[in-house]
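Meet the record:
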Amino acid sequence: MILSSLELENYRPYRGIQTIEFSTDPEKNFTVIEGVNGAGKTQLLNAITWCLYGQEEHFRSDKDKKRGILNDYVKSNLGNGQKTRVRVAIKGKDTDDKAIHFERSVVFHKDQKGNLYEETPEFICFKMIGRDMEPIGSPAFMINRMLPEGIRNFFIFDGEKLDDFFREENAEKVKSAISDVSQLTLLDATIDHLDKTLDGIRTSIKGQTPKVDLLNEKMKAFSSSIEDMKADQTAKEAELEEVRRKVRELDEKLNGTDVSAVKKSQAERERITQMLGSTEEDIELENGRIRDTVIAALPSLVCKDAIEYTLKKISEKRTKGELPPRIRRTFINELLEKGECICGTDISKDGDRRKKISQLIQKIDLSEISEYINEGNYELNSALERMAPIGPNLDEIGQRMAALEARQKKYQEQLGEISAGLKGLNIEEVSNNEFLRDKYNSQRENLSGDIKVLQTKIKGATDIIEMTRKELEGELKKSERNAHVANQISVGENALEVLKDARKNIVDKIRMTIEEKTRAYFLSLIWKKETYTKISIDENYNVSVVNSLGSECLGTLSAGERQVLALSFMAALREVSGFEAPIIIDTPLGRISKEPKERIAEMLPKYLKKTQVTLLVTDEEYTPPVKQKLSKSIGKEYVLKYVEKESKTYVNAYGK
């Protein structure tokens, strides 16, 4: 899809009709829109997502969000009994190079008492078919074909928020992003359908035996519990994201204060918080190693004493001659048939000697037990030899854990001292913000803990369901009349396993491709060429940045470096998605200092060659050197000017 123009009518600060025409020249593929903070740059992002998807999600503050979609001036000057409308229209070309037009509008009217009412929004789409623009019956389907809603944030995004992407726990965000870009909706639907079909087959055999009914009820109860826990987890994750947003807002307020001591303390706190986060990640890794070591050594911990005791008893019995001799039935029968003992004695006729040998057959069962004991003795000795000592590994991990926990405690104490110092300042607003930050930070820790507990419980319940399913399958196989049902379930579960493996293989391949492309983008864009050597995304979707000394340093990246990392990740996602759509970035260089900013401006056109790009920038970002680096790729330039007394943003060509 290529954007030709954006037309806004009474949309937020864009009073009247304002139009932006995008550059469609493949060689000059950049459109730059400059404006000071508050001029309406971010509202252009909202205008585009509102037009195409009916959603607004880019706001700098709650105040902006609550102001409403209708321009303030138009709203206040609308007379009783009058109507007006908000409209956003996007014109462009579809992937088949045919003209296409999207338009979303909503009518507002005031009744005779002055009450404002909003009517149902209207969304229309027209496309060039033959020589005429024809209406499209399903605009949402058309949009989803060109740029699915699930991946739009990799093409239309707020650069200011990129810094937050890798600031805190990022694994879930990274996993979600890779899952979205994988576009496995059909495969996921197939897996879900097959899973539900198998559950239906299992429940259809109700009443066969009490145990079958009990196992079915057990699975049903745990499945219901999992659904409840997942819903609770989703709610807590949304709550956690909101708490994080509030903490970030307070941090910005504390950073923006004029008190130099507060600025210094806040900067120090951010630095220590990053190191604390990195340390806590290392602690979590060591905890994982402890779990793995203990699980691997479980046979040693649980069975070693019993095995040694058993071997000792076998040895004692053998020494005392209490174990039956190893005599085979076939050997005795052969002696009796030949009529001659192995010592040469004649036993062909009835007599005491033949009778004694015949009596040995009655002891054969004991001899077979002896064989089992000998085999067991061998297996137990082999098992004992394979048991790895747990002590040395745990000692090493324990030493590392002790050092990490000591470091964690030191960082926590330092953060406590900073917080106490900020509270003690004789500045009412700063002190109040600090108390609020402590409150939200406590909520954040509690919510993070609750989410981890829920994740553990969900995994435990899932494991129990899996074991119960296997037990049910075994129970069904015991009955001939249920054999065909057991076979159906077995075939279905095998198919489900194949589908899940296929999904995992696809996602893993995409994850590794994104890892490779993120690394290439980051190492090309970053200004510290000799500092960073490796970017990785592991199977649990944890992102790692390693420096030339081999140390993990994601937690100590500066705001600008984190923004470059997130920008590189977004670029990799966009490329892997396979969709050719415009890229629109608000405040792409906001947190990046002078020299790195110029480096990125030089590299962006190379990495986004022939991709339509729109940059929404402030004057502090769009410096003369940055403009010079981008100049050969710029096809259109605009300046946004907000006039407060008119409650209106004007769109002017650059330099006019």
Residues 34 and 617 are 5 Å apart (CA to CA).
